[in-house]
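Practice problem: predict the structure.
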Amino acid sequence: MENIQKTLRDKPAMRWAMLVLVSMLMFATYWFQDFFSGLKGLMESEMGFTSSEFGRMIGLTTIANVFGMIIVGGIMLDKWGIRIAGIVFGGLATVGASITALAAYGFFGESHSTQLTMMIIGRVMFGSGLEVVCVVATRTIVKWFKGHEFALAMAINMGFGRLGSAMGIALSIDIGGGSVPPAVAFAATLIGLSLIIFLVYTVFDRKLDRQTGETAGDAEEDFKLTDLVKLITNRSFLFIALLCVSFYAAVFPFIQYAPDLMVNKFGFSYNLPETANFFTVFGSVPLGNAVIFIGLFIFGIAFSMVPAQMKSMGKKIASVLIIFVLFALFIGALWDTTLSLWLKNGPKTASLIPMGTILFTPIFGSYIDRKGKAASVMILGALLLIFAHISLSVFNSVVLGYLGLLSLGIAFSLVPAAMWPSVAKIVAENRLGTAYATMFTIQNIGLLGFFWGIGKVLDMVNPKVIEAMDSARTLLESQGLSSSEISAQIDSMKAIGEIPPYNYFWPIFMLVILGVISIFLALQLRIADSKQKYGLELPFGNLEE
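Answer:
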């Protein structure tokens, strides 16, 4: 027992500190993955991107991973270990993000085709590092938390990623000051800073390896092709991997178009009114908005962690009530000046999706630690997914739209909180890097199709919008206006109806099918688990037992 107490991972404060350090890389990469979502309209008016081109740039982010880059990265992670893999692939993501930012500024050429091509190249490089970074973070949590607060730690790590998504979607248009390039540069800078923070983490990771006598790769033997064959022929793993595809293909691509949907379908704005008295920090509205998101994240963690530390039921209930009252006061204090206006703004309202995960993922992760029911939770998440997309595609009610976004946020919390810890029950620890990488690879095939597909279908069913946009741009360019002036003019034409809004019915309704498929796969996973006895319906609190 004395020897165990000397190990860093057996000290709660050290475990959670390491989680924060590693999660900063997740925060930054998810910000860069999703921040273009809040800029779609601006990219159309300022840079001339069509929905199809926007979808192509976002979709091709995953192209290297479709061809097995993540599997290669997962094998490297199992062989090299967390430190080297994190630095190499975090560095690759940083370089890719930097190229994207330079391209947005016209560094490689100011023609539309050159900017688009170089931004795609940068995104491909970023994407090649992004998913392996996610695998590195997941593998790190297994290393530090297996046998402890495993599902909760996994959920909080995902919460950091969703926090990055939410803030990227909601704040980038404010940070850019109505222009795309500054927002891209800021997002790229975040990744560079997070990589520096990861270097700090590696110091402690090395010390832990020395204490436990583990080697860099943490693998008992070299990777063999038969390991991969065993993975994809395992029924439980196959069903959870396919569920990963169908679920995330209905969520991640939607997030990229959600702000534009809210603007075009419900008449929301892209920019916040300049005359409003928003909450500020040091006189800065974007910084004030960032503090609000961080506050929501802290409340999400408090709801899940504080009651769990209380020994008696009375204290648990009291702590929940206290946190709830503080949360209500927090919302009430900001409602009139800020939050009520957020709910009329496309990017801010769309950030409800990852915002929901900030509040709910740690709670669901803690529940799964204590109660289990992972396969059943995935079924519930798929049902919420169907409700969300029907609400946002079929109906024109703003209230149903809000409920749809909230439902999607809850589903986006439920399924990952159950899915990723479940893999650690199905797959041996020394092959988790390869297993997670395989899942990410299969997932990216679906993401590539739907990132691009939604934009393509959107253009196909809205030919009059495309024609009006092209005609307006050609006319304004012939008048010698700058890109920012053209952007302002096109936005004005949209506001008065000279350029009609997009019809988003078919691009979103087709995602309902993915929800149905997700339910089928979750049911098959529960059946397979009942036969293979991995215990996915049992508590996750201590995987070593």
